[in-house]
Amino acid sequence: MRRFLPSLSALHAFDASVRHLSFTKAAEDMGITQSGISRQIKNLEDFLGLTLFERAGPKLILTEEGARYYDEISRLLDKLEDVSIDAVRGRKAQSMLKIGFPPTLMRRWGAAMLTAFATAHPQTWFEVYPCRHDLDFAASELDLAFVRGTGNWSGARSQLLFDEELIVVGAPKLVPLQGLPSDEALLEYPLIQNSSRPSLWLHWLRGAGVHYKSRIYGPRLPNFDMILECAIGGMGLAVVPELHVRTELAAGILKPALNRLQTSGEGFYLCFPQARMNSANVRIFRDWFATEFTRRRQFLPPAFPLDQK
User: Fold this and answer.
1) Pair type for strands 97-101 and 144-149
2) Among 1.20.120.50, 3.30.365.10, 1.10.1740.10, 3.40.190.10, what is the CATH number of 94-162+266-296?
3) Given this chain, do its domains 94-162+266-296 and 164-263 carry the same CATH topology?
4) What is the pLDDT of residues 251-266, one digit of tens each?
5) Does the domain at residues 164-263 carry the CATH identifier 3.40.920.10?
6) 189-198 burial string, b = 16+ CB within 10 Å, else e?
7) Which residues face 54 on adjacent strands?
8) What protein family is recorded (predicted)?
9) Confidence grade of residue 292 (pLDDT, cut at 50, 70, 90)
10) Which residues contact 33 (CB under 8 A, 6 or more apart)?
11) Model pLDDT for residues 19-44, shown as the tens digit of each residue
12) Residue 247 · residue 104 · CB < 8 Å
């Protein structure tokens, strides 16, 4: 008997329409006309005997039946896409090593390390996923991850790679040739703050023994990438992990405001979920990284030439 299945074109149109809640935008996404999308949705509704969308002027509203149908169909479309990609790649996505990296750490440190691994093990395919530093390993499908913290993640084994060291930087037009004369001089400048790590300036000032009586003045930005761009433009001084700012310091587009580094109390760790410690790809990466990191220390950041206090 013939399967009771709608056309794949109709399901594509339905998926795009739900994601955009607009036939016009769905049409742009799929590269067809708006009338083509409307016709596909009408055909799907007639096939199912359901009303999938209600129209309220220019607005498109997913009905309760449409929402239930999409909840199931979206998972099946995802699975169909995975199977098709696996066929093109010649292997299942599940066989790939899944590596987690916070985006800034990946750009500033991870790319060179992963390039070396890919060169050493060209037959071990891996895929990199963005992740947060407070990763929940119990709920994650990652095989390993590089994250910042204090070494305590539930359900994972962690290996300290190096401590996080903070440095205060600014554009050359803000920072005097010899740097600021004292820690207290920081408070005379706008201090760019990281809204995702709001305690960094407090940590720095308290560690330096600076006594401040008023609120810390300066704009708030959501991540280090934005903070560095604005610091380069002269918005103010920024306290950032020294690891993230080496390229800018070497190029001279940022300068150390003070001749010192200060640890944050956290470090960068390589973490392995305990449930995946014995998988073949994890063992390959773990053994390779242990050899490279321990024997040659090639991925340990070199000390920055500042006085550490």
Assistant:
1) parallel
2) 3.40.190.10
3) yes
4) 999 999 998 899 898 9
5) no
6) bbbbbbeebe
7) 61
8) Belongs to the LysR transcriptional regulatory family.
9) confident
10) 27
11) 999 999 999 999 999 999 999 999 99
12) no
Q: Domain-by-domain residue ranges, the chain?
A: 8-89, 94-162+266-296, 164-263
The pair of three-digit structure tokens given for residue 170, joined into one six-digit string: 């600014």
- Are the C-beta atoms of residues 256 and 262 closer than 8 Å to each other? no
Show the tokens assigned to 190: 């706008």
Q: For residue 39, which phi and psi values (nearest 5 degrees)?
A: -65, -40
8-89 has CATH 1.10.1040.10 classification: no
